[in-house]
Design brief:
This protein is an alpha/beta fold and about 625 residues long. It has 19 helices and 28 strands. It folds into four domains: about 50 residues, no CATH class; about 325 residues, Rossmann fold (3-Layer(aba) Sandwich); about 90 residues, no CATH class; about 120 residues, no CATH class.
Length: about 625
C-alpha cells in the first residue's frame, strides 16, 4: 500500500493549523517537525513571560481537559432517514451524540463557516446531568453509554457542591467543547452562552482564555420570570445571564433590531412638518463643550441657558442654522426650553441591541414550557424540562447575529429540547430567511423512560418533527411560507463507530502472530453492516465536505460512482474496480478521487499506475 494515497480516518487535530502557522513564522524553532520550545523562547526574546506568578485561570484537571481536546476521534456520523424529514432537500440537521466527539468530527467540514453559536450548558447547580462518568475518555465510552458496545453502560453523574472538584469538573467539561466551537466560527461569528450565578464568573475567565478578553462583547441580563418567588430564602432569582463573545470583535457587528410599533409611536407631528413625524431631543449634555456656553433668546423674549454642569451640544452658529431649518421645537406656545426635532425618516431603520432583555420582549420560562408541551407529548411530568428556553429568546439572538439571506449556519451543541432548531425555523418563516441549524444532543436517559420518549434526544426529534408538520399544515399566517418550504425538514445523524476497521496498536511489534492476524483482518477493512450511504457520509466528513454538499450517483463504465460538489470530487465504493472505471473518472477531470483500498485487491502495480495517472491529470487520489 502506498502511504501517500491513504486518507486519514481520524478527525482534524485542533492544533494542526496553529502549528503550521507557527512553523511558517518561526521555522528555526522546529526540529524534526516538532516544536522546540526552548528555541522558540530564544527567538521571541523579551516577548516571553518568564515570571512564575501570573494572572490566569487554572483548576484541578485542566491538563486532562486539554488532553481530551487533543485526542482525535475515529468515529462517524450515520444518517438516520427514518427519523429525518425531507432528508434529501433540507439543510437543517440534528445529531445524536456526545458533543465533544461530534465537534471533533465537524472540524474539517465546518472550520470557520459558522455564523452564530448558542449553547445552554448545564448550569452546575448540582441537580443536572453534567456528563457520563469518564466521558472525556472518548468515543468508546460513548458507545458503551449508548449500548453500541457490549459492555456495561457508563453511569451518568451530577456534580454536587460537596464534591471536592465542584467547579473544576464543570470547567473540565466546558473547556474542550468551547475550544473546538471557536474553531467553527467565522471571523465575523459570535457565540451566546446562557448561564446563571453558579458559574458565570468562571465562564467569563474560561472564555477570556480561549477567545481572548478583547473579544468579549457583553453580558446580557434576561428576565426569565414575570413574578417574584416568595418562597425564596434570600432573593427571588429573576434573571439569567447570556455571555456574548465574538470570534473577532474588530470585525463582528450586531444587526439592528427591528423597530416595533411602540418605538415608532413616540414620533408625532404636532406642527405638521412636511418631513413627517418627529420627537423632541434634549439639546444639552453633561460633556464639556467650549462652544456650548451661551444664552438663547426666544422669539417671545425668554432667555434660556443650560443648567449648571451641562452645556449646549452645538455651537451658537449651528443652533441658529438648525432653527432656520425648523429643526428646533419651542413648544406649542413658543415659550418652552428649545429641543431638537429628530425625524423618524432620518433615524436608523433599526434599534441598537441593549443588554437588558425583559420577559415581555423575549419570553419567560413559563412560556418556554408551554411551547414545549405544545409539541411534545409527555406521559410523565418528571420528564418535562425545567431549564428550557423560549423560542423568542433565541430569535432575539438570531436577529442580532444573523441575516435573513446570508445562508448563515447556526450551531447549538447542547440542544436540549430543540429550542434553537425551533427558533431558526420560526425566524426563517417570519422573515423569509435561509438560515440553517446544526444541533447536537447527547441521548440522556430520561428519569422515567416512556413508550416513545426514552432519552432527551427523543424529545429533541419529536419537537422538531412536529414543528415542521405544523408549518406544513398551517401556512395561512406565514408571510414567507413559500420561500422557506425547501428547507422545511431535518437530517438526523447519530454518532457511531467508524464503518472501517481501525488498526489496534497494542504491542504488535513484539507479537508476530498478532500482526499477521491484523493484516488478514484488514484485507477487507469494511465492517459487514456498513451501508454505501453510511460509508459515503463518513468519507465526506473526513474529506472535509459539509453534510449538505450535493451528492449524485452516476454510472462510469458500468460501475456506480458518487459525484460530489457537482463533480469536483468523485467517490467510488465498488469493491472490485475496473481499469475502465478508473480511466472514466480521470476523463471527467475532478479535483479528487477516492476509492476503497480493497477495490485494488493488493494489486500494487495497478494502484501505482493509477496514482501516477491521477497525478499527471492534476487529480488528488486517495484510498480508504
Amino acid at each position: 500500500m502506498l502511504p501517500e494515497t491513504r486518507m486519514p480516518l481520524n478527525s482534524l487535530s485542533p492544533n494542526a493549523d496553529r502549528l503550521a502557522e507557527l512553523k511558517a513564522l518561526f521555522p528555526e524553532a522546529f526540529s524534526e517537525n516538532r516544536l522546540d520550545f526552548d528555541r522558540l523562547k530564544q527567538v521571541l526574546g523579551e516577548a516571553v513571560h518568564t515570571d512564575r506568578e501570573r494572572y490566569g485561570l487554572n483548576w484541578a484537571g485542566k491538563t486532562n481537559a486539554i488532553h481530551a481536546l487533543q485526542s482525535l476521534s475515529v468515529g462517524t456520523l450515520k444518517p438516520d432517514r427514518n427519523a429525518s424529514v425531507n432528508f434529501d432537500t433540507t439543510e437543517h440537521m440534528i445529531i445524536e451524540g456526545d458533543n465533544l466527539e461530534v465537534l471533533k468530527l465537524l472540524q474539517k467540514s465546518y472550520f470557520g463557516k459558522v455564523k452564530m453559536i448558542y449553547i445552554d450548558p448545564p448550569y452546575n447547580t448540582g441537580n443536572e446531568f453534567i456528563y457520563p462518568d469518564n466521558f472525556r475518555e472518548g468515543l468508546e465510552d460513548y458507545l458503551k453509554y449508548t449500548g453500541q458496545l457490549s459492555a456495561e453502560g457508563t453511569a451518568t453523574t451530577s456534580n454536587k457542591e460537596t464534591d471536592g472538584r465542584y467547579h473544576s469538573n464543570w470547567l473540565s467539561m466546558m473547556y474542550p467543547r468551547i475550544f473546538l466551537a471557536k474553531n467553527l466560527l467565522r471571523d465575523d461569528g459570535v457565540v451566546f452562552i446562557s448561564i446563571d450565578d453558579h458559574e458565570v464568573h468562571n465562564l467569563r475567565l474560561l472564555m477570556n482564555e480561549i477567545f481572548g478578553e478583547e473579544n468579549f462583547i457583553a453580558t446580557v441580563i434576561w428576565q426569565k420570570v414575570y413574578s417574584p418567588k416568595n418562597t425564596a430564602m434570600h432573593f427571588s432569582e429573576d434573571h439569567d445571564y447570556i455571555v456574548v463573545y465574538a470570534r473577532n470583535a474588530e470585525v463582528w457587528r450586531p444587526e439592528l433590531l427591528p423597530r416595533g410599533e411602540e418605538a415608532n409611536a413616540r414620533y408625532i407631528n404636532p406642527d405638521n412638518d412636511p418631513r413627517g413625524p418627529w420627537k423632541p431631543s434634549d439639546l444639552t449634555a453633561r460633556n464639556y463643550y467650549s462652544n456650548g456656553m451661551y444664552e438663547i433668546v426666544s422669539r417671545t423674549g425668554q432667555i434660556f441657558k443650560p443648567a449648571v454642569g451641562t452645556y449646549w451640544r452645538s455651537s451658537y452658529d449651528k443652533f441658529l442654522e438648525l432653527d432656520r431649518d425648523n429643526r428646533i421645537w419651542w413648544g406649542s406656545d413658543g415659550k418652552n426650553m428649545p429641543s431638537l426635532k429628530r425625524f423618524l425618516s432620518e433615524v436608523k431603520q433599526g434599534i441598537t441591541p441593549q443588554t437588558l432583555w425583559d420577559y415581555k420582549s423575549v419570553g419567560h420560562t413559563q412560556e418556554a414550557k408551554q411551547e414545549l408541551l405544545e409539541f411534545v407529548e409527555f406521559e410523565d411530568t418528571q420528564n418535562v424540562l425545567n431549564s428550557v428556553k423560549p423560542t423568542r429568546l433565541i430569535q432575539r439572538m438570531l436577529q442580532i447575529a444573523t441575516e435573513p439571506d446570508g445562508e448563515d449556519i447556526v450551531v447549538d451543541f447542547f440542544a436540549g429540547s430543540g429550542t434553537t432548531a425551533h427558533a431558526v425555523m420560526r425566524q426563517n418563516e417570519e422573515d423569509g430567511g435561509n438560515r440553517q441549524y446544526i444541533c447536537v444532543q447527547l441521548p440522556h436517559r430520561l428519569p422515567k423512560p416512556e413508550r416513545r420518549l426514552k432519552t432527551l434526544f427523543d424529545i429533541t426529534t419529536q419537537r422538531v418533527q412536529r414543528v415542521i408538520n405544523k408549518y406544513d399544515e398551517d401556512t395561512s399566517k406565514l408571510r414567507f411560507a413559500g420561500d422557506t418550504k425547501r428547507n422545511r425538514g431535518v437530517k438526523v445523524f447519530r454518532l457511531a463507530a467508524s464503518n472501517f476497521k481501525i488498526w489496534e496498536d497494542g504491542n504488535l511489534e513484539e507479537d508476530a502472530d498478532a500482526v499477521a492476524a491484523q493484516l488478514e483482518l484488514f484485507a477487507d477493512n469494511l465492517l459487514p453492516d456498513a451501508t454505501p450511504e453510511d460509508i459515503l457520509f463518513e468519507i465526506l466528513i473526513k474529506a472535509g465536505y459539509d453534510l449538505n454538499v450535493s451528492r449524485e450517483e452516476i454510472t462510469v463504465a458500468g460501475q456506480s460512482v458518487y459525484s460530489i460538489a457537482e463533480g469536483r470530487q468523485l467517490v467510488c465504493l465498488e469493491r472490485d474496480i475496473t481499469r475502465e472505471t478508473l480511466a472514466g473518472m480521470i476523463a471527467r477531470k475532478p479535483e479528487g478521487v477516492i476509492c476503497l483500498d480493497e477495490a485494488f485487491h493488493g494489486d500494487d502495480a495497478l494502484l501505482t499506475n493509477t496514482l501516477l495517472q491521477m497525478q499527471d491529470a492534476g487529480i488528488r487520489f486517495q484510498t480508504i
